[in-house]
From TrEMBL:
Keywords in alphabetical order: Hydrolase, Lipid degradation, Lipid metabolism
Active site: 52, 193
Name of the featured protein: Patatin-like phospholipase family protein
Source organism: Hwangdonia lutea
Motif (DGA/G): 193-195
One BP annotation, GO: lipid catabolic process
Length: 345
């Protein structure tokens, strides 16, 4: 049986440029090694999961064009970030004063983000996704995690416009206003960024994949149904890590306001590291020929500012540089991943 190829992409705002570059390299190698100029990330993964900026990238990879083909390749998706990132995170003086830098109100207007999502995802619904996908969000009204599933979206009760899914998964508290969206059926939801509980959605992807009859969904009898870990190839990509220390002296008497941003940072990185630990332990239990099929790539941010809303031109260039360095540092692993993606096509 062929393995189920799973891609998972972390949240991280404008730092989505970094996994965007890594996946652009993977896509370029897929085209070269298969001789297919139309080879794309979407076509070479069987299941894709994403949180926040990773959720937006995931939606772009599985979005169909009017002919039912993959509309965006990895380089197309990356180009959107490079072209529009500074507009989405543009902080006007009025908004800066009104929000007190995100303390009394959300830091940024959601209008540019919504315009970008509408421009590239339009009126396409999640149920039309060309590959099974899972996008995370959090339902603040019902106080529970919320998962947008393209397979569940085959029923209009659970279907949504892709642009609304992108808006919900990236509604980062203190950065953007919570998303108020409706399903295709008309049910209203109040949602925020999935990064509040699953900034690294790899384990969510693993759990969801265990329930799917892939041979039927992908119309491929060589793909296993309800696969276990030994039947999976998981590629999990982060948006970069910088371990800024928070000292005891600095925070021993800190109050609510001072703790807001550090808590978001700690929560996001802590979740990502915990999920990586859990999946490593799962795959360590497998026979040797299977235990090397979980890949976690967490790039180092050396040149760029790690703030997820630092989207000025200079930092966008620096994020690109860090993305290229990540490719160079992980080239052997990335080439290995490409070979396994082709082998399990």
């Amino acid at each position: 049986m062929k393995k189920i190829r799973i891609l998972s992409i972390d949240g991280g705002g404008i730092r989505g440029i970094v996994p965007g570059i890594i996946l652009s390299y993977i896509e370029t190698q897929l085209k070269e090694k298969t001789g297919d100029p139309k080879a794309s990330v979407g076509a070479y993964f069987d299941f894709i999961a994403g949180t926040s900026t990773g959720g937006i990238l995931s939606l772009l990879y599985v979005c169909p064009d009017k002919n039912g083909n993959f509309k965006y390749g990895a380089k197309d998706a990356l180009g959107i970030y490079l072209d529009l990132g500074d507009d989405i995170f543009e902080l006007s003086l009025i908004k800066q004063i009104q929000s007190l830098g995100g303390i009394s109100d959300e830091k940024y207007s959601e209008l540019e983000l919504e315009n970008a999502l509408d421009q590239f995802l339009g009126k396409t619904t999640l149920g039309k996704a060309l590959r099974p996908c899972l996008i995370t969000s959090y339902d603040i009204g019902n106080r529970q995690s919320f998962f947008f599933s393209s397979l569940n979206a085959k029923d209009e009760v659970y279907d949504f416009l892709m642009r609304d899914v992108g808006r919900a998964t990236s509604a980062a508290p203190t950065y953007f206003e919570a998303a108020r969206i409706k399903s295709v059926f008309g049910a209203p939801y109040a949602l925020v960024d999935g990064g509040v509980f699953a900034n690294n959605p790899s384990l969510c992807a693993y759990a969801e994949a265990r329930t799917i009859n892939f041979s039927e969904v992908l119309n491929n009898p060589e793909k296993p149904d309800k696969p276990s870990a030994k039947n999976m190839l998981i590629v999990s990509i982060g948006t970069g890590s910088v371990k800024r220390p928070y000292t005891y002296d600095e925070f021993k008497d800190a109050g609510m306001v001072k703790w807001i941003r550090p808590l978001i940072d700690i929560m996001m990185s802590g979740n990502a590291e915990t999920v990586d630990y859990q999946l490593k332990k799962i795959f360590e239990t497998l026979p040797k020929k299977h235990c090397q099929d979980y890949y976690r790539i967490q790039p180092k941010l050396i040149n760029s500012n790690p703030e997820m809303d630092k989207a000025d031109k200079a930092n966008i260039i620096a994020l690109q540089e860090d993305g290229f360095l990540a490719v160079a540092d992980n080239k052997i692993l990335l080439d290995e991943i490409v070979d396994k993606l082709i082998e399990n096509a």
